[in-house]
Amino acid sequence: MLGDKDYKAVRKGNKEAFRKLFCHYYPRLKAYVATILNDDTIAEDIVQDAFLYVWEHPAELPKENDFRSYLYRLVYTRSIDYIRRMQVKDQYYTLVYEEYAKECEALLEGEGETLEKLYTKDFYQELYELLQQIPKPRREVFLLAYIEGRKAREIAEQLNLPQRTVESHLYLTLKYLKEHMDKRHFVLLLLLSLPF
C-alpha cells in the first residue's frame, strides 16, 4: 500500500516511489479505461500517457488524499478526448458514449461492488425479458455482440448484412434497453462490453 512518504517522494521525482505508484494504480486505471473504450490496447496507451504526464509534471500532483481521484480524472479526461478525436459515427454517439463513461465512472468508485452486481439474478432476468420484446434480427445481433463479444464487422460477415445495418441494430437495441431497463442494470450491461 502506498503511504504519505511515497506520494511525497513521487512529487520530488523519486523513481522507485513512482514505480510503486505505477504498479499499484496501473491495472486499476487500465481496467477503468478499457471499460469506457472497450479496447485494451488503447486503454494501455492512455494510461501510460497519463503516467508519463505525472512523471513529467510532479509539481501538479495533489495531496495524497486526493491522489486516487486525480489519477482517475486524468485518464477519464483522456478517454473522452480520444472518443472525440475518433469522431464516433456521429455527434449523437459521442454524447451517448460520454454519458456512459460518466455513469461508469460513478459506479467504479466502489470497484469490487460493481462486479458482484453484474451477476445478480435480477440483472439477467430483466435483460432476458426485454430482449424477448425486440425483433429477432436485432436480438440475434445483440447477442453476438454482447454474449460472444463479436465486433460489428464480424457480425456483418457472419450474417451477410451491411455493417451499417448491424450497427443500427445495436444502436436501436441499446436505445430500447436504456429506455426500459433499470438505470443501474443498464450501466452494468455496458460494463460487459461496448461492441463498436
The percent of residues in helical segments reads: over 70%
User: What class, by secondary structure content?
Assistant: mainly alpha
Overall shape: elongated
Overall average residue pLDDT:
77
How far apart the termini lie comes to 37 Å
Query: What's the story with the biggest beta sheet?
Result: none
Contiguous low-pLDDT stretches (5 residues minimum) are 114-119
- The assembly state of the depicted protein chains is single chain
- Total number of β-strand segments? 0
- Secondary structure tally, helices: 11
Gyration radius, in Å: 19 Å
What order do the helices and strands follow?
A: HHHHHHHHHHH
Any descriptors?
elongated, 196 residues, single chain, mainly alpha
Written account of the structure:
The protein is mostly helical and 196 residues long. It has helices at 4-11, 15-37, 40-56, 67-85, 91-108, 112-118, 121-131, 136-146, 152-159, 163-180, 183-192. The model is unreliable at 114-119 (pLDDT under 50).
